[in-house]
Structures are given as structure tokens and as C-alpha cells.
Amino acid sequence: MSVIVELSIFPMDKEGLSLSPYVARVISIIKSSGLSYQLGPMGTCIEGEWSKVMQVVDRCYRELEQDCDRIYLTIKADSRRNRTKGMIAKVESVLSKATDSR
């Protein structure tokens, strides 16, 4: 079964305004997984089989766990049988139905 997971993960014990170096470490792990992903401003979507996606989520957590004492993590999931390229298809479906009411 295919799953799309939106993952947000970052340390809560680091000083400064930007946590992007930590997020970049996580994105490197996601990218190297070979799974489809899409970086967004508030989280990253990852698409694949449940076990593979959850392995990547675990690797992301373990990466930050090395030098972070407090980690914030949220996961949202959408699972569907026989779906391929769901991240693209879901967005295209909405855009094809949207009208500009201005």
C-alpha cells in the first residue's frame, strides 16, 4: 500500500532564529533514500511503501537525536491502495478543478 507522509522534525533545544542546518541534515537522509519527496515550507512529504517511509522517518529522528536533547516531530499520513505518484496526482487533481473567482 502506498503512503504519503508529511513529516516535520526539528530540534527545540537550539538557539537562534534558523533551524535550517538541522532540517538540511534530515533532507539529505530523505533524498538519499530514493523515495519521492517534496520539501515544503512547514514540512516535507515523502511517498512510498509504509515500511520504507517509516524507516526513513526513523533515520531522520536518529540523525537529530545524536546532538539534540529535545526534538519536535509530527507525522500526517495518507495511505491508499494501488496509488502511484500520489503527491503529483493529488495536486494536479485539485488544480484542474480550481477556478479563479476574481
From TrEMBL:
Residues 5-94 form the Thiamine-binding protein domain. One of its GO terms (cellular component) is cytosol. Gene3D superfamilies: 3.30.70.930. SUPFAM superfamilies: MTH1187/YkoF-like (SSF89957). Transmembrane segments: none annotated. It holds the Pfam family Thiamine_BP. PANTHER family: UPF0045 PROTEIN ECM15. Belongs to the UPF0045 family. This is Thiamine-binding protein domain-containing protein. The lineage of its organism: Bacteria, Pseudomonadati, Thermodesulfobacteriota, Desulfovibrionia, Desulfovibrionales.
